[in-house]
Structure to design on (675 residues):
């Protein structure tokens, strides 16, 4: 996950490949709650791993559920619809900004404490305390539940209290508004089987006041209740009946399909940029129970070519530019946000209506989307329940706010395809970490299927002598930017290690070049693998480093590794460290740093590293070796060690890694300003 303050995405031009989606948030938290309330064990396959599901899992465990994980399977042993004695004591649950946890848990726990007794407080982040819940509370109070507002009237935090032996009043229909959020109705439907039979074993009726929005999410709720043994009868979307004596029955095994809302970003990317080959999306298909799969029809209306089947969808660009549309989006409010981003690439004015629920989500999404699309240069008109977007005439280089809203971040990332619509500017997303709510690996997944011209991908080079700390500095800078890293020294050390293991002489240039050109090398975070073997520690051995220094002067070896080095220049950017990154390999780098430190200081650092690994060494010998390597590297005929003419020199003799990284990032910020 990109745990950084901001992420710069370069101008993107192509999209193709295969994406595997995480599980649906809407399905995941519904399934977890139902499994937690059931009597028995449910094996939940492919559960979404996100902030929202972690919040729900933590809450269920505190309520007495037992949860075990084995790979992609979570086994949930439910509480059988009863609060334990421990859970009935004063308890405070923190639910973050997870509406799919707050609303259903509020309803279920209100009914449980009414019957079993208890004192439970539900709270979240400040934004959660701004999201309305009054209509649900009003419905729960009709049942006789004691629900109090701990803060502002109509909003969380909530306090739920009751005495053992209480009975919910289900004799009359429970009325709930449907025109603010469908989550209120969903919460009641998920919870009311807990009260089944409390009034002479009569059915429980829920009536919806006003027009129900987001109907497909209610369809998901009804389908999942059916899987857990509750067959809800209904009259359209106005009246719902829970049969008498309903009980949750664990289905033993249930699969969480991929998130259809998350699929929308990749369907949109394919519609915009899948020209040479299709983009395939796996985990959710045209058979999905999620309403947001209707986004496929909207994408087709805008010109996308979409095919699919059970569990998969493939997308290609069709009409270009995309077709402007006017759509009623009541049936897919979350995915409709992606249409607003697609409107940036349309041939006119796109108008999305019936989206009033956007205003009570993680942020006021209508206002937020309008503000950020305007930053990009779009003309936007917004109202109480609509947004109207005309694409930019001139794209602006903008830093976009994400409002701690995962869907804002993912939608706005699509703006990076602006070169295909007459742009050519990078896009900065502030606080990209918010995607962890539903899709922690979103950006990694996106970057694996997009491409652009090498010249568009920014590169920072860090060159310097042996033991100057260039690798450590490059790693720190790459981590803070969310970029990829190339440790070119590791390539030469891997070649040296491979030569030693194959008994290839340091003078056999032909054999060395052959080894270098066919290295079965793989980087996995901080680990380096050679032919399936972890060689991370072996690369740091002194004899490997000494041989690497010698063979790195051989033109044949350098040429053999050149193409491999260039291949590391991938979205979103690259920090490359070595001895000729700025002078030879990435001569067009946007920022070049030449790191220096005295031989004495470098020898002391190397000695500390060796001692920490239990390797004995002498300071004088290390210094002499470093000075010899410096002389050899500076005077070699091919790519001698020297600063590039436009490099900025940084003496880190008295600086920490953090201070050195701060300096490099300051230089980068001065050259890479955003509005």
């Amino acid at each position: 996950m990109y745990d950084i303050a901001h992420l710069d995405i370069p101008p993107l031009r192509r999209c193709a490949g295969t994406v595997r989606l995480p599980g649906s948030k809407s399905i995941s938290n519904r399934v977890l709650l139902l499994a937690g309330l059931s009597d028995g064990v449910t094996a939940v396959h492919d559960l979404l791993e996100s902030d929202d599901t972690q919040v729900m899992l933590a809450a269920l465990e505190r309520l007495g559920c037992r949860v075990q994980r084995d790979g992609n399977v979570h086994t949930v042993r439910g509480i059988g619809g009863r609060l334990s004695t421990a859970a009935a004591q004063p308890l405070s649950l923190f639910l973050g900004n997870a509406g799919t946890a707050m609303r259903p848990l509020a309803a279920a726990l209100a009914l449980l404490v009414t019957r079993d007794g208890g004192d439970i407080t539900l709270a979240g982040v400040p934004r959660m305390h701004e999201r309305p819940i009054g209509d649900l509370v009003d419905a729960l109070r009709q049942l006789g539940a004691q629900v109090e507002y701990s803060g502002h009237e109509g909003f969380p935090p909530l306090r739920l209290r009751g005495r053992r032996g209480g009975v919910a009043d289900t004799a009359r229909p429970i009325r709930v508004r449907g025109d603010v959020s469908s989550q209120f109705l969903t919460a009641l439907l998920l919870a009311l089987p807990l009260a089944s039979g409390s009034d002479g074993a009569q059915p429980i009726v829920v009536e919806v006041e006003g027009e129900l929005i987001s109907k497909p999410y209610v369809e998901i709720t009804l389908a999942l209740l059916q899987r857990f043994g509750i067959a809800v009868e209904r009259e359209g979307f106005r009246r719902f009946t829970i049969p008498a004596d309903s009980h949750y029955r664990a289905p033993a095994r249930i699969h969480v399909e991929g998130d259809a809302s998350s699929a929308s970003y990749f369907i949109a990317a394919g519609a915009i940029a899948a020209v040479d080959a299709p983009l395939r999306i796996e985990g959710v298909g045209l058979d999905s129970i999620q309403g947001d799969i209707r986004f496929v029809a909207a994408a087709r209306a805008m010109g996308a070519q979409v095919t699919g089947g059970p569990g998969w969808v493939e997308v290609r660009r069709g009409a270009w530019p995309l077709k402007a549309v006017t759509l009623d989006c009541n049936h897919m409010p979350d995915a409709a946000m992606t249409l607003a981003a697609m409107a940036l690439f349309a041939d006119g004015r796109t108008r999305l209506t019936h989206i009033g629920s956007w205003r009570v989500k993680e942020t006021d999404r209508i206002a937020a989307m309008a503000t950020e699309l305007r930053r990009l240069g779009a003309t936007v008109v917004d109202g109480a329940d609509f947004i109207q977007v005309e694409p930019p005439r001139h794209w602006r280089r903008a830093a976009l706010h994400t409002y701690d809203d995962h869907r804002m971040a993912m939608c706005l990332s699509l703006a990076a395809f602006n070169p295909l619509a007459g742009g050519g500017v990078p896009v900065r997303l502030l606080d990209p970490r918010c995607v962890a709510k539903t899709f922690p690996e979103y950006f990694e997944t996106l970057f694996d299927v997009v491409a652009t011209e090498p010249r568009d991908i920014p590169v920072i080079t860090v060159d310097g002598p042996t033991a100057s700390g260039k690798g450590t500095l490059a790693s720190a800078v790459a981590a803070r930017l969310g970029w990829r890293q190339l440790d070119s020294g590791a390539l030469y050390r891997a070649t040296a290690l491979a030569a030693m293991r194959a008994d290839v002489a340091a003078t056999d240039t032909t054999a060395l070049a052959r080894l270098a050109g066919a290295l079965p090398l793989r980087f996995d975070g901080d680990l380096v693998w050679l032919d399936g073997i972890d060689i991370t520690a072996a690369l740091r051995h002194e004899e490997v480093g000494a041989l690497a220094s010698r063979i790195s002067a051989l033109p044949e070896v350098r040429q053999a590794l050149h193409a491999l080095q260039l291949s590391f220049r991938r979205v979103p950017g690259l920090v490359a460290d070595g001895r000729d990154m700025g002078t030879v390999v990435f001569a067009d780098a946007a920022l070049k740093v030449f790191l220096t430190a005295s031989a004495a200081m470098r020898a002391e650092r190397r000695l500390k590293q060796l001692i920490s690994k239990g390797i004995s060494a002498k300071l004088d010998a290390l210094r002499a070796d470093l000075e010899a390597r410096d002389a050899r590297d500076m005077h070699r005929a091919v790519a001698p060690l020297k600063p590039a003419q436009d490099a900025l020199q940084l003496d880190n003799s008295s600086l920490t890694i953090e201070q050195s990284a701060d300096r490099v990032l300051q230089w980068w910020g001065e050259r890479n300003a955003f509005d």
